Every structure is written in structure tokens, then in C-alpha cells.
Description:
By secondary structure, this protein is an alpha+beta fold. Helices cover 18% and strands 24% of the residues.
Amino acid sequence: xxxxxxxxxxxxxxxxxxxxxxxxxxxxxxxxxxxxxxxxxxxxxxxxxxxxxxxxxxxxxxxxxxxxxxxxxxxxxxxxxxxxxxxxxxxxxxxxxxxxxxxxxxxxxxxxxxxxxxxxxxxxxxxxxxxxxxxxxxxxxxxxxxxxxxxxxxxxxxxxxxxxxxxxxxxxxxxxxxxxxxxxxxxxxxxxxxxxxxxxxxxxxxxxxxxxxxxxxxxxxxxxxxxxxxxxxxxxxxxxxxxxxxxxxxxxxxxxxxxxxxxxxxxxxxxxxxxxxxxxxxxxxxxxxxxxxxxxxxxxxxxxxxxxxxxxxxxxxxxxxxxxxxxxxxxxxxxxxxxxxxxxxxxxxxxxxxxxxxxxxxxxxxxxxxxxxxxxxxxxxxxxxxxxxxxxxxxxxxxxxx
Length: 402
């Protein structure tokens, strides 16, 4: 038996005596209410229809989902309780199977799999973390393998792993000494190998051909990391010499770059600063930023002062632009914030007064209102010369160990 609903919609027939929706929305009584003794029946019917219809719909919802009679007895508390009960019943009966495709509805699992619609339980997260903690870290390159000998034996590489140089293609042998790599072969070498270049990576050994020419050889070795290095050495096959020459490192865009004056310099991490404060970084200097504070003053942040390996001299350092006579065009005053590691560089005009007139650096500062050219004074604060840069080699911040 269906529940009783006392709340009925009023004036809902097709020919009901009501104003149109447009007239209703334009009626001044919509905001102010009906004036005394002036009520239009068809407007009143419209008002009653709207309020009674929504009341009837809500009451019908309550009756349907609560199973109780909805009575017009003036008991507001009871009606509120019935509405809450109906809403709870609606939610309980119509929530679908748990899913990750509907907001607020989740199905849990404690099994590892490839589902896109399941969420993990706390236990599964804990198991995965425990599993991950027992895995090898990629950046350790095998250093964290507990039993390296057993690991190698399980791979069937017990012979390969015992020496620092692995030689061959389909079958491999290992040796201790780079000098003993067979002619015309490829290999993979480790830094600990005797007479090697001191870096991990692949290499090749070539001979001069046949007969006596076999004694004249070339060995090339390259590191395999992003900032790769290429090394080579040659073998002198002359009978009274017959020995390998030293290893040499090839300078390339991976380890060097031209400075502001065209001279090749060690590249790792370098900042090129332009007059307006814009800048370029080598890939190793990623994260470093530059700001032009004011005329002639630039701040480098995200570093720990100048490079400390001395490859650019004892100061670290900074390379300033020079003219074709090798005379620097500016002076620089450098300082490092001991707390942050930021570098501040101040640039000052360099006149080079001791040089012949034609070689002196007379730099135009401005043209005044009378059309006269104004030059920078020697030692006056100035920006980096137009079209030039200064190169600064920095020390990167140490990465935190997490």
C-alpha cells in the first residue's frame, strides 16, 4: 500500500486560471508582495501553483523513500526528520558498485595488478614500500648488491666480472690491462684497469693492417654518461720504441666552450651574462639564475660561489670581454655572500689610458641635449658592453641527501 501524501499541487491543469511565466516574472508584486485590497486572482493562482507544486514534489519524495505518510498537520519537526530519512534511504539504495570512475566511490584492493578502477589498501601500500626498500637503487650502479659474487654467478657472468676490461662480441673474455686488449676488437673498460684512461665506458683498438704495420695502433675510449668524454692514445710500432703513448682527452662541446673572447675553456657549470641581465647556462648549471640589480650590477643565485677546482685560475672565475689587442673592456668587482653563496658582480668602465690613443677604450655613455657625446669615465659603473657577455664559472649547490 502506497504512503499517503497530503500535499497537493494547486492549479496545475492545462487551462488553469494563471498568468503566464513571462507576466509573472515582470509583475511588480513578485518583489513587493500583493498590495492591500488589490489581489489579482490569476496572479495569486500562479503563486499558489509554484509553491504547492514544489511542496508536493518534496512530499512525494519523502513518502516514496521513507515509506511513511506525509501529513499536513503542521508538525515541522516530523517533516524534517522524514526528509532526512528519505535522503539517507535514497543514498543507501542507489550507490553503485564501488568505482574510481565516480567521485566519492572507491573500491579497495590488497592485490597488485593493472586495474584503473581499484584503490589500494593501507596494507598493500605498506607491502609495496617494504618491497621497494629491499630493491636496488639505480643510482648505486650495483654498489648496493649484498652478495655481488652470487649475483654475477646467477647471471652466468662469473668470468666477465672478475677483470676490469671486458673484450669481445658474442663471447667475452676479461683482462686486467688495457695494453693486453686484442688488436682490432671492441671492449668495455673500468677505471681500475691498468693503463686505461680512468673512466667507465666502451672502446676500440685498431691496428695498422698487416705485417709490420700492425705495430702502429689507435685506441679510442669514451665515457657513457651525459657529459661524455672521449680519450685516445696511439702505439708507436717503431722497433726501437714499440710502446703506447699517453692517453689524451679530446676537447669538445661536451666538456669545453669558447669564452667571451673566443678562447676554449673547461665548460662545466658556466653562466653567460648579457648586458640587460639575460643569461645562458651550460647544462651542468641548470637551476642557476641571474638578475640585473641596477646599472653595472648583476647577481647570480642558486650557486655556492665560484668554481673551486681552479680550472679557470685560482680565483675561480670570471672572464670579461676584451678588444682585438687583448685589452679588457671593463673592470669587475666580485663578492660572494657567505650565507647564500650568491655572487654579485659589479662592472666598471676600463679606459686603458696607458695604451695608444687608437687602442684606448672610449665608450659612449649618452648624447646630451646640446648634441655633445658624453663618454664613460675610467672606473665609472657601467653595464657589460653591448653585444658582449661575461662568463662566470660557478660552484653548484650540494644536493640534499634524502
